[in-house]
Write a structure and sequence with these properties.
Helices cover 33% and strands 34% of the residues. The chain is an alpha+beta fold. Helix 2 crosses helix 3 (93-115). The longest helix has 23 residues, at 93-115.
């Protein structure tokens, strides 16, 4: 009985450690996303996982992950734009915990970018009562948005590709 319990615990530990990434690794992945956004994520784009109903927006897996079960590189053939988006649903305890681990570090990176003088950032609440942290370069091109859903129901981190521009 002890042997079966030990083997079960060993198996669970190995399975959980294979996919688990530390907060530092996730923050490194976030920094990679920022760099790769300059090439519209071409170097880190994985396999296509889904198309929208019109076939104009395609969703691809992304090689570096932010630990969210709902994340993808999105390519829109209507206007040839791309972005990476990761969403954490706070109704799921694991997603809430992952978001609370990664968000402070992401905000530290964003604040450092603004303090460098090469970017402009602002925080505001939109008409749907969603809290938004926005980062643009000095030319007004979108770099990223961080959304905290109304009533703190989710966190979404979106990194825009170079193609996004000033829209």
């Amino acid at each position: 009985m002890k042997k079966i319990t030990f083997l079960t615990l060993l198996f669970l530990t190995i399975c959980l450690s294979v996919d688990a990434q530390t907060t530092d690794q996730l923050l490194d992945n976030f920094k990679i996303l920022l760099v790769e956004s300059r090439t519209d994520f071409k170097n880190i784009q994985g396999e296509m996982v889904e198309k929208d109903a019109t076939g104009k927006i395609m969703y691809y897996s992304c090689k570096p992950t932010l630990g969210s079960p709902l994340e993808a590189i999105c390519l829109n053939s209507n206007d040839n734009t791309s972005y990476f988006s990761a969403k954490y649903d706070y109704a799921n305890t694991n997603e809430l915990l992952k978001a609370s681990e990664i968000l402070p570090g992401v905000l530290d990176v964003v604040n450092a970018m603004v303090q460098s003088g090469n970017y402009k950032g602002r925080d505001y609440t939109n008409s749907q009562k969603v809290g938004v942290t926005e980062l643009k370069d000095l030319d007004g091109n979108y770099i990223l948005e961080i959304e905290t859903g109304a009533d703190n129901t989710y966190l979404r981190i979106t990194v825009f590709g170079k193609s996004w521009g000033k829209k």
